[in-house]
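WARN retry 2 of 3 for item q-0093 after timeout on previous attempt; input resubmitted unchanged.
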Amino acid sequence: MSAGDRSGGRRLPKAVLAGTVAAVAGLFWLYCVFLAARSWLASDPATDPHGYALLFATVLAFPSAGVVAVTLPFVVSAGPRRTALVKFVVPVLFGVSTLMLVALATA
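OK item q-0093 returned
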């Protein structure tokens, strides 16, 4: 057994834990995006009369996007795939979260 095999065995539990944390935070982020979009696009004022869904979903989207951006690279082993994943996921997360902030400002 080489040293690379042993490090791969230790990496698996860390990757599973990072994937679980990233998945939970990502689902929460998607829920925040859904709440903000539903509140902002609703034509019925009874849907979100005070705008709390838009406000809190926007505020909570940034920390959850940060958790996803930090933990997701640990799921994939180091190399070009990790770099490509980070170059795609991080701008998408923070770009959509910034659009939510714009929606909050224009509501």
